[in-house]
Write a structure and sequence with these properties.
The structure holds two protein chains of two kinds.
Chain A lengths: L13 E4 L3 E2 L2 E2 L2 E7 L11 H6 L15 H5 L1 H5 L5 H10 L2 H5 L13 H5 L6 H14 L7 H16 L4 H11 L7 H13 L2 H12 L8 H21 L3 H15 L5
Antiparallel strand pairs in A: 1-4, 2-3
Chain B lengths: L8 E4 L3 H4 L3 H13 L3 E4 L11 H4 L1 H18 L4 E4 L2 H16 L1 H14 L10 E4 H8 L1 H9 L7 E5 L28 H8 L3 E2 L18 H17 L4 E4 L2 H18 L6 E4 H8 L17 H6 L4
Parallel strand pairs in B: 1-2, 1-3, 3-4, 5-6, 5-7, 7-8
The chains are: A mainly alpha, B alpha/beta.
């Protein structure tokens, strides 16, 4: 079956009748041939262009639908619903509502780059997955995924100090995603770690939390990176047609923060 | 030697993980270098390469971060080779090299940030980035290791695990897949070759370049645990006693999810996880402490002692 017809045979689109006789033939029961007719009227042709404007999505137009990406995909092997080829098809066709059905799993791409390795057209599907996940978030279709929160905590530290310290990244990530620090596996890991470690090393690990490792004379690099990030964010906002929305939100915030009577 | 460059004295870029959870990798790499008469000079005042996260905020910032490391090595220290034992660092430096060679836009952004940050802009081609595997294989070679180790790892069954970032995507590793003597991106073998030269028995391990889910080890832990479980099962089914690693993210991922698989899913496995530099160090006669064997969460000391290796 062609990939674009896949959604037609979902259980909710199949017809089932308890008593149906057509031309004297009893066709009661479950018949996959009686598919609910479906006309797609909600094409959003802007999606492909919007996703191409985000980092990683640049080469989506090259796709030939060969399926090498899905065939090689690490996540597809553990969750068959994870289907990069299908999503690329939907994006290029502008089938937004069908794409949104999978909005909660697209961020799960683990960036193993098997798809990019296999792709004969250099679509860079790994990048497309990241761009699509960002598009979903920027458009407000999904909240920030745990992966995005992690990226932000991590990148925030790198831009701030030039280096990261893993314990700090872990704590901030668990805090921002509302998870308790005491995870059973983490406790077990620390136990086994502490068991084999000399005191010197434990002190070193502890101190890394107080004296954060940092690159010296980083301030100028930090401000140059921050300036670039801000520019890019503006660009993406414009490319996704979000300028008006952001302006509106800003006005709302200002009007609320201004005390009445002033 | 692939590039004809001398790897006797190279710039060393440990990266953040080797200062944190992977101190054992840092320690064993340095000790092995010392034992082999190779000199490492740490890149001065280095910064994070961007790991797997910064590119998701913006890939060109990652290119800048990696380029700064190479710029310091080349312009401030006069090196033409940077050795990075971490797959993430190695991958990102290679990626930056590729982008700066092929993408005008990346060059512009890197030049702009470098100038504002007050250091020389890195120019593509100034340094060659190599992995710890290239470093030992090209400078010492299998024959050299065979002479020095005298088959010390004899009787140890090893699954060599390379992960994702060492070989994928292919286009950032132009020196690989170049026929005899070069590394293969589909079935990498440099670690196999080195450990075999030290006497180890490499098992036929099908998941050499499978993904451990390292990028989502915390944000999507269940998926990562599932992926690691597959790797552990395959290693045990191949008859391996240890999994040799050459990446701090893979290594800590395997250790963490081995515990998680047991705690959360009831899957218990006995295969031990060891950095390849730790095995080489032991084979060269170094003490277990010197290569940081006690710093691993996966406890391989008993097994290696039993085999007469540690």
């Amino acid at each position: 079956m062609p990939i674009h017809e896949e959604h037609l045979i979902r259980p909710e689109n199949l017809k089932t009748h308890e008593n149906l006789v057509i031309d004297g033939v009893d066709v009661s029961g479950h018949w996959s041939t009686f598919i609910e007719s479906r006309v797609v009227t909600d094409y959003n042709e802007a999606i492909e262009e919007e996703i191409s404007s985000l980092p990683g999505g640049e080469f989506i137009h090259r796709c030939w639908q060969c399926g090498s990406c899905t065939n090689s995909c690490t996540v597809n092997a553990v969750n068959p619903e994870f289907n990069p080829r299908y999503w690329i098809y939907l994006i290029r066709m502008g089938m937004e509502s069908e794409l949104l059905r999978d909005r909660d799993i697209i961020w799960q791409c683990v960036s193993c780059n098997k798809c990019t390795y296999a792709c004969p057209r250099d679509v860079m599907p790994e990048g497309v997955m990241k761009a699509t996940a960002h598009w979903l978030e920027l458009k407000g279709h999904t909240p920030k995924s745990p992966s995005t929160v992690f990226d932000e905590v991590f990148a925030g530290q790198v831009i701030e100090t030039g280096k990261i310290e893993e314990g700090r990244v872990l704590r901030h990530f668990l805090k921002r995603t509302g998870q308790p620090m005491i995870q059973p596996w983490l406790v077990e890991m620390v136990k086994r770690m502490v068991f084999g470690l000399p005191l010197k090393m434990l002190i070193h690990l502890g101190l890394a939390n107080i004296f954060r490792p940092r690159t010296s004379q980083w301030a100028r690099a930090r401000s140059a990176i921050n300036e670039y990030v801000a520019e890019k964010e503006d660009e993406h906002q414009t490319a996704l047609g979000l300028d008006d929305l952001v302006e509106l939100a800003k006005q709302e915030v200002t009007s609320k923060s201004t005390p009445a009577g002033e | 030697m692939s590039s004809g460059k001398n790897y006797k004295k190279v710039a060393y870029y440990p990266g953040c993980a080797l200062e944190g959870t992977a101190q054992a990798y840092d320690r064993s790499t340095k000790e092995v270098g010392k034992a082999l008469g190779l000199e490492l000079e740490e890149v001065k005042n280095w910064n994070c390469c961007g790991a797997m996260e910064v590119k998701n905020i913006d890939p060109k910032i990652q290119t800048y971060l990696s380029s700064r490391v190479m710029s310091i090595a080349a312009n401030e220290m006069g090196h033409d080779v940077v050795m990075a034992p971490c797959n993430g660092c190695y991958h990102n430096l290679k990626k930056a090299e590729y982008d700066l060679q092929n993408d005008q836009e990346s060059r512009k952004v890197v030049d702009r940030i470098s100038t504002k940050a007050g250091h020389d802009t890195y120019q593509a081609g100034q340094v060659e980035t190599i992995h710890a595997l290239d470093w030992i294989r090209d400078e010492i070679g299998e024959e050299g290791l065979r002479e020095r180790t005298k088959g010390a790892l004899k009787g140890l069954k090893v699954a060599n695990y390379y992960g994702c970032m060492y070989t994928r995507p292919r286009h950032i590793f132009p020196e690989k897949d170049q026929g005899e003597g070069s590394e293969s991106t589909l079935t990498p073998h440099f670690m196999d070759d080195l450990l075999a030269a030290a006497g180890a028995e490499n098992v036929d391990f099908p998941l050499k370049t499978a993904c451990c889910g390292g990028a989502h080890t915390l944000s999507d832990s269940d998926t990562s645990t599932l992926l690691v479980t597959n790797i552990l099962k395959a290693a045990e089914a191949s008859g391996a006693e240890v999994i040799a690693t050459e990446c701090p993210t893979c290594h800590s991922g395997l250790e963490m999810h081995q515990i998680r698989a047991e705690k959360n899913f009831g899957y218990k496995s006995n295969v031990k996880i060891v950095y390849f530099t730790q095995l080489l160090g032991l084979a060269l006669g170094l003490k277990p402490k010197a290569v940081g064997l006690h710093e691993n969460i996966s406890n391989s000391t008993d097994l290696l002692r039993e085999k007469g290796i540690a």
